[in-house]
Description:
By secondary structure, this protein is of the alpha+beta class. It has helices at 2-20, 100-109; strands spanning 52-53, 70-79, 84-89, 92-98, 116-123, 129-136.
Amino acid sequence: xxxxxxxxxxxxLLAIGISVYKKPNTVAKPDANxxxxxxxxxxxxxxxxxxxxxxxxxxxxxxxxxxxxLKSAGVYIGQIDSSFIMIETxxxxxxxxxxxxxKEAFEQLDIPEGAAVKFTYQIEQNxxxxxxxxxxx
Length: 137
């Protein structure tokens, strides 16, 4: 009887020990620079591809960021959701937000995955790249 009681106690202690040391699911809290509106999914901060700038060089810390249109080209990878697409520029995949007007007309563009594209975009104050125009090359 003592033997079974000892085995039972050891089993219970192992079960408790395993449950205590199980890693909890941790969620990183966004810092002040990455606050988001409710309902939006987190987007990784995009890298800015080298591109041609119309006018002066743009400084992302500039409060007027987004007022300068940048031009670039790449390969269309695909649509993430109704607001974002992926384009490979300079060998790196990058997500771009569709502008309101482009979002409305995106389906009519009928751009196949893997197609070479040219586009103009702006960088918003929060660092998000927003495509203004998109055409197949």
